[in-house]
Design brief:
InterPro entries: AAA+_ATPase, ABC_transporter-like_ATP-bd, ABC_transporter-like_CS, ABC_transporter_ATP-bind, P-loop_NTPase. This protein has 242 residues and is of the alpha/beta class. It contains seven helices and nine strands; from the N terminus they run βββαββαααβαβαββα. α3 packs across α4 and α6 packs across α7. The chain starts with a strand and ends in a 6-residue tail after the last helix.
């Protein structure tokens, strides 16, 4: 199982002082779990995700995932405008697989995110929600055991965001990935997470295991109780230096 052990990380500010971003993060991820990292901007949650993705190296500690494949979805789709939807979705596979296998994986991923009919479209022909679906498909084609998502719906309108949340839950339940999802939106956290981890000033300050069936309306008793606990914790946290 993927596991974070005493992860510590920081950086030096222009004035020469050092800011510690993560201060001893420990977390063992259960296979197939949906984990949400919740906190204010600047609290360290996106930094933690980047470390897990291998985009940065921690100052101390280890992230062990036994060589399992990792997929990443960012807030911005980051599509290449000179490639079609299908080409963007399959870009990470490069020459690693035979062409027919790439086509198979791309077709399966695009069907899963509801974009198979626009596989030959260009990025400038897509809505924001459609572009983010391509980004999710691009992460799915590598068949990741662990899917990391950094506020992927943050730039979407409310209606599209809710639809994308529902679609993500459907994909997760169908494929069984372990997901780590970063957000600063409490309502998004309680709609999606099995385990919600509040992070503030580089530390986990609350772990909340949420036993509520999907799909969630947000009005379930378990959700209301979780929402209140999270609000209490978030308002108790000092402001981050974002």
């Amino acid at each position: 199982m993927p596991e974070l052990r005493d992860i510590r990380h920081g950086y030096v500010l222009p004035n020469g002082t050092r800011r510690e971003v993560l201060q001893g993060i420990d977390l063992k991820l259960d296979k197939g779990g949906f984990y949400v990292l919740l906190g204010r901007s600047g609290c360290g949650k996106s930094t933690l995700l980047r470390l897990m993705a291998g985009l940065e190296i921690p100052d101390a500690g280890q992230f062990e995932h036994a060589g399992e494949s990792v997929g990443v979805v960012f807030q911005e789709p980051r599509l290449m405008p000179w490639l079609t939807v299908a080409q963007n979705a399959g870009f990470l596979l490069g020459s690693k697989l035979a062409g027919h296998e790439i086509d198979l994986r791309v077709s399966r991923a695009l069907k899963m995110v509801g974009l198979h009919d626009v596989r030959d479209a260009w990025p400038n022909q897509l809505s924001g929600g459609m572009a983010q679906r391509v980004a999710i498909a691009r992460a799915l084609v590598v068949q990741p055991a662990l899917l990391l998502m950094d506020e992927p719906f943050g730039a979407l309108d409310a209606f599209t965001r809710k639809q994308m949340q529902d679609d993500l839950v459907r994909i997760w339940r169908e494929l069984g990935h372990t997901i780590v999802f970063v957000t600063h939106d409490l309502e998004e956290a309680v709609r999606l997470g099995q385990t919600i981890l509040v992070i503030d000033q580089g530390c986990f300050t609350l772990r909340l295991d949420l036993d509520a069936a999907y799909p969630r309306t947000g009005a379930e008793p378990a959700i209301n109780s979780a929402r209140q606990r999270l609000l209490d914790r978030l308002f108790a946290c000092p402001n981050s230096n974002s």
